[in-house]
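Lab channel / #folding
Pinned by the channel admin:
"Please post every new chain as: sequence first, then the structure tokens as a reply. Keep commentary short and put observations after the output so the thread stays searchable."

First post following the new format, from NK:
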Amino acid sequence: MYCRYDFEERPSPRNRSHQIVRWLGVTALAFVAFAWPHSDAREGGKANRLRVALPVNEVRALWVVRNTLTSPEKIHNMVERASAAGFNTLIVQVRGRGDAYYKSRWEPRAIELKDQPKDFDPLALTLAEAHGRGLKVHAWLNTSLLANLDALPADPNHVYNRHPEWLAVPRAVASELFSMSPGDALYRQRIVEWSKANRGELEGVYTGPANSKVREHIYRIWMDIIQKYPVDGMHFDYVRFASPDFDYSRTSLKAFRKWLEPQLSKSEQTALKQALKQNPLAATEKYTAKFGDFQRAQVTTLVERIYHAVKRRRPDVIVSAAVFANDENAFTRRFQDWRRWLRMDILDVACPMAYTPDTTIFQKQIEVATSTAHAAGRRVWAGIGAYRIPAESAVEKINTARTIGADGIILFSYDFTTTTSTLNPQGDYLERVRRAAFASPVPTPK
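Reply from TO:
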């Protein structure tokens, strides 16, 4: 089962000044209704009389994983259940692992759709069903995550097979692979073997954002969707590097050297040239901080280009991104400078994946995101890890996000909340959230 998580949930030291003060702008919110949340979401539970205000146009969203898009029946049921539970926005995964759950010009149809007729278009059907019920639909695309380690793509047209030179390379095998042809079967094998040995931090095989051809490919995918489908929004995920161990591919190393050299003196350039003859990683080892700056710049370049292209074609479309809620982790370990994106006006909505079960940590993470976004005139939808917590805890976090002044919430995920489990024994998670947090309706978000 696809899993989303944040590796380090503790607040970063550089944001403690933000974390001790709640977002002051909450007092300026316009309110249209009040919810009376329950301390016990079951029928007959004791009511908690804390009054929590609802912001105008509150986004009540669900991340919908691609498994739910594999048949018309699943899509119909998903839209029906989401609507009945009071949600108004669906963020549906249409690019999961370098494949397509829509009619794509650039990538192969998902293998999970093999039993469906060729004319079955999951995104088109979701849009028709959801719009018919007044729900917004955002197309969710995984950016860098390309393939599952235990189910590598067989399709020769898949990027994994067609462009092995686009794969992100971990530092541990970079020297070995630097002089090897990416077309050599051993090239991919070594990447996969290392990744399997480091599953604790990796979810699969990734592409490298420092490769300009990778960025162009992602750009084309976005433009393909925005020009074909009446989506209400487009959603980045995995718009980052996999971990601090990436990307040390030949393409990335050469791009870094080209980016770095104008910043060096003549003597430094000469010394680096000599060092690189002995060690292809010499530049990254000597200029570690600059390599981090370079990596962040590559991701930001991608986000900026896509954002402006979307707005030129469809100014009404919302561009959002799922980001690491611990911004220090995002900045230093994923090279994902999402706070800068908000300040640069190249992201409409930040969606911090604040999946911690601890509501105090959740509060601090959403405070940092909300203060950053609102100062820049942008928005925040608080990501809640429903798969890790009971419905009562999700309701507590929804109300915490409202108190802070977040513009909406997103539960991860629809798929978990409708499946029976230890945390969801009756499979009625959405209904329990509706009763406790969504009893008062809100308008369809703009």
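NK: The longest helix spans residues 288-313.
TO: also worth noting, Residues 162 and 197 are 25 Å apart (CA to CA).
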